[in-house]
Amino acid sequence: MDTFDVVVVGAGSAGAAVAGRLAGDGMRVLLLEAGGPDTDPDIRDPGGVFRLWGGPDDYNYFTAPQRHLGGRRLHWPRGKVLGGSSSLNGMIFVRGAAADFDGWGPGWSYAEVLPYFKRLEDFDRGADDYRGAGGPVRVISDYTPHPVNAAIVAAAVEQGIPFNPDCNGERADGAGFCQLTIKDGHRHSTATAYLGERPTLEIRTGARARRLLLRGRRCVGVEYTKDGTPHRVGAEHQVVVSAGTLESPRLLMLSGLGDPAALRQHDIPVVEKLPEVGRNLHDHALVPVIVAARRPVPPALPGLQAMHSQLFWRSRPGLPAPDVQPLFFHIPLYDGEMTGPADAFTLMAGIVRPESRGHLALTSADPDAPLHIDPAYLSAAADRACMRAAVELCRELVRADALKEWAGGELHPGDRDVSDHIARTLVTYHHQAGTCAMGSVVDHRLRVHGIEGLRVADVSIMPTVTSGNTNAPAIMIGERCADLVREDL
Questions:
Q1: What pTM does this model have?
Q2: Could you tell me if 213 and 290 lie in one domain?
Q3: CATH number assigned to the domain comprising residue 345
Q4: Over the chain, what HEC string results?
Q5: Domain tally for the chain?
């Protein structure tokens, strides 16, 4: 059996950072990735994002029927490829508000994670008190936006929402243009940023982790399959599970770490009672407001995606951070029963401090069986009220003088009842989190309770999801995990 200092499961936003940093220190690191190499040209092309979803590099998950969404099952694209979801996502770089980290526990306040955010980035405006330069991840902010995206930002400012040139600076609130993980006109995934030539790093793709190897209460390796053949690898120091919000809890449960009653249903021997594995599942959500254009909408700009403007807003007084993050597209996003002309654009109403909580569960001891995924969208009344406020905000923006040049009639929701429109059209914001939460599943050094030599490092460890896109926090978690491993040694 091959043995390494550290085995990392999952080459996504966090896992690539963990593996790259530790191998950079000279540790012998094995990185296991269930997907394949990141060779699809649409991964490099920022405009190719929608073409990747549902393809061979996508896990292509679907939720259970959602009670508050008319029984609909939502598609959840997730990256099954080097770079994970950083190879499939919208490339939007948002840290979240400072207040997001206050409840995470020792070592995770905003003041404590800020150095990691600064360390990981190469911001195109250079370093200051809040921003970093020279790090592995290129972040751009100074580009010429599409005229429709620019007009929507101008409409927000006209409606009294302040322009914010840097949502990752001192304050998140306000309207502006997205910061993007794009370098030289190409997507800059964590695979590109962290997984260059390193003599002590070995990467095995097509390697599907099936269970953790445990010796008593210590994790000593990983069992995986490649091309249908089982393999085992050992970890001298520890295993880091960075397989994501859905696959990390699955691997723990398949290894006997979870709720005893649920494990026994699938004849999985119980090693450690961790009833919260798979619970606390939550996600940001989007609802489209689609507007017909008065004149032809210019084509997409080379080296940019269609969504590169946004705003952060608070739906009610007293909130510690924005709970609404609409995202603006210069294309129409028709889905399901929606129809309309090609010349149209979309204001996606987004909620980013959800109170609804769901869970995921195994349906079988087979690692390739579908998961039962129930995020319980809009089960909390506060989320229903917040989403309605977000939709109405987007509708107000369309009526601003700054959009008169572009905005024709509102196509969706149009005359339809707003609550009905929300139930029929809500989609994921692709920011699922919380299923291996700090406190209940891992401690504040990311160690799995009751098991030595095992950490989880990805967005699943968030007790509460950050109020913005989760790629940047995921990378930060990977960076911090690498330091925690170093400290142990």
A1: 0.98
A2: no
A3: 3.30.410.40
A4: CEEEEEEEECCCHHHHHHHHHHHHCCCCEEEEECCECCCCHHHHCHHHHHHHCCCCCECCEECCCEHHHCCECCEECCECECCHHHHCCCCECCCCCHHHHCCCCCCCCHHHHHHHHHHHEEECCCCCCCCCCCCCEEEECCCCCCHHHHHHHHHHHHCCCCECCCCCCCCCCEEEECCECEECCEECCHHHHHCCCCCCEEEEECCEEEEEEEECCEEEEEEEEECCEEEEEEEEEEEEECCHHHHHHHHHHHCCEECHHHHHHCCCCCCEECCCCCEEEECCEEEEEEEEECCCCCCCCCCCCCEEEEEEECCCCCCCCCCECCEEECCCCCCCCCCCCCCEEEEEEEECCCCCCEEEECCCCCCCCCCEEECCCCCCHHHHHHHHHHHHHHHHHHCCHHHCCCEEEEEECCCCCHHHHHHHHCEECCCCECCCCECCCECCCCEECCCECEEECCHHHCCCCCCCCCHHHHHHHHHHHHHHHHHHC
A5: 2
Residues marked as catalytic? 431
Q: Is 429 annotated as a binding residue?
A: yes
Average pLDDT over residues 17-41: 98
116 is in an annotated binding site: no
Asked if the structure places residue 250 within a domain, the reply is yes
If asked whether residues 327 and 232 sit together in one domain, one would say no
- Is pLDDT above 90 for 103? no
Residue 268 sits in the same domain as residue 155: no
**Model confidence pLDDT, tens digit, residues 259-317:** 999 999 999 999 999 999 999 999 999 999 999 999 999 999 999 999 999 999 999 99
pLDDT digits (tens, 9 = 90+) for 59-93: 999 999 999 999 999 999 999 999 999 999 999 99
**Based on the domain organization, do 347 and 468 belong to the same domain?**
no
